[in-house]
């Protein structure tokens, strides 16, 4: 099995030989009986269902818990490749935090004319409440997921920065557990970096950002919108693994100027909240007054420096795709270095010339809504009908500033296991990054998402994509 | 521990006990129905539905009592919020709510039982599958209690879970006795008749007490003996005395962990005093029905006090 040459194949070279990263794995794979592999494949699914690793589909009842399809062929990354990636990610995350701080303080980057002011003025995630406020430890985005795609041996691109509330880390951990249970001999044979201490690192990183009023061991809680949220499993899983409380808005209340949770023996202060609730729902007194998911008054406590909210409110600004298009400038401005990880070439429809180019080349481009996420509101030119393309054309002309466009990338492929054997499918990669006041910690691995339909470029789980375990090899 | 989590654990185990007791009653009813003619079997199904509080709902939907209709209503009817399937759905819902307060063993025991049960109850259950389905529900309870005993920290959470179990078990045993004694017998002239004896046998079976009772009483069955066994014999794990002794221990453990007692402890002491001062003769003199009604309301008051004392709700 080889790729068809148009796309970089993670497992094979252009001549069909096996790439170095996969040499041990492929040798092992060919020693296995196909019938055994098929059985293991079925076992994996049963295991996921048994352990209840599901995500809920919005607007459907509990009966509609779905499994994210799991593929048992790992995506393998060499130690060298990983070193290069982490340097680039670290640089980018450092720049992101410096950018957030600048944006909510002196706005040097705007004064310097490196990015236009409208970028945050028009940004729905911009929070005036954060202006002039320094979050505890100076950290804005404590947990970041950087989405990467690959197009060649040395070509990795950043597709998206998830600085608001990146999800998927529980799949990284459970995929690894499943692989270790199914194929222990592979782990004995190959040197694979461990990912399993992520929860401990997360707990430590969050505790390091505790406010100064915290005495002794900081109390950390995970704030979930509740059992019907699509990522509830992940929230419960992380709280469990960190030994933290899993709280809902109704468990919290402001008591004596602190945020406190209702325990069986009364209200107890919380120091750090890892929130999986959007800004808009965080505080009905400040934001959406109809929301019951948040905590009335939490923003006042926050501004008084008595609680850490991770990620900081207002960080969603950086998730915006228009900001993304300026990331090369942002990285250079704050680090004084060229970006180690390039962006995908991005055309901003807000700019007249770019817009004209986009409209002239719609059939070849991927068009995204500036504030969209999860694969919604996208146009994938090459696989769309004329009618869809014309509909998008009208939308872009009506509100050009709402769209960006990128070339259709030749995303790398990695084989998945099918009834007929291995078959190439497009993948991306989301490494997880933890930021504390004194360090940036990147777990060696991440979530590899894989499009399950042949030829499809859409890897989002909400659109039927699956996941794979990601192996970073030791030197 | 969060008050909401304590509430979730308490109710997770109440629903687990309720689902299991419903299945046990169904089991007993089924065995009785199998040994009777159609007319009397109808009585058995009526009593099973009455005991589980599902009679009105059943009759609103069905004109007649047939076994197949009755057990499908009890096991899986969508219109029946007290069906075994609905109860177990509540168990799993609560288990998800408190996922980070229970062990993986316990979660997987619940989740696997739920998947199996959902599968077995996906279609109407015929004669050849009903006992198997009932066994699945009973086994789910055994698995969950076993997983908890073997893996959960003896902390607050454990004691809330156990308190939920014994509050519910005491309530359902009291209810079974009450229905039998107060409602089932058409008139006093039936006392000691084969119908009466058969019903007592069913009561014992529904709490898995038939074997134990025979062992202790050399095979003799009589109403007084059975009531004494199910109310006062603290060796039997489903008697009212046993349930309250276990509940007392769990509440005492909670008081130790919290360093103080609440209303629930005072109510528990009152209940203990009342139960230990009574012999079976006094209970019969007072009237079994009256005794049971008082016991149930006292049991419910303890449950309410637990919820208040430990801030289950905002």
UniProtKB/TrEMBL annotation, chain A:
It comes from the Bacteria. InterPro entries: ATP-dep_Glu-Cys_Ligase-2 (IPR051680), CP_ATPgrasp_2 (IPR025841), UCP005522 (IPR016450). Residues 74-451 form the Circularly permuted ATP-grasp type domain. It holds the Pfam family CP_ATPgrasp_2. PANTHER family: BLR5612 PROTEIN (PTHR34595), SLL1039 PROTEIN (PTHR34595:SF7). This is Circularly permuted type 2 ATP-grasp protein.
UniProtKB/TrEMBL annotation, chain B:
Transmembrane segments: none annotated. InterPro entries: ATP-dep_Glu-Cys_Ligase-2, DUF403. It comes from the Bacteria. Residues 1-310 form the DUF403 domain. Pfam families: Alpha-E. This is Alpha-E domain-containing protein. It comes from Erythrobacter mangrovi.
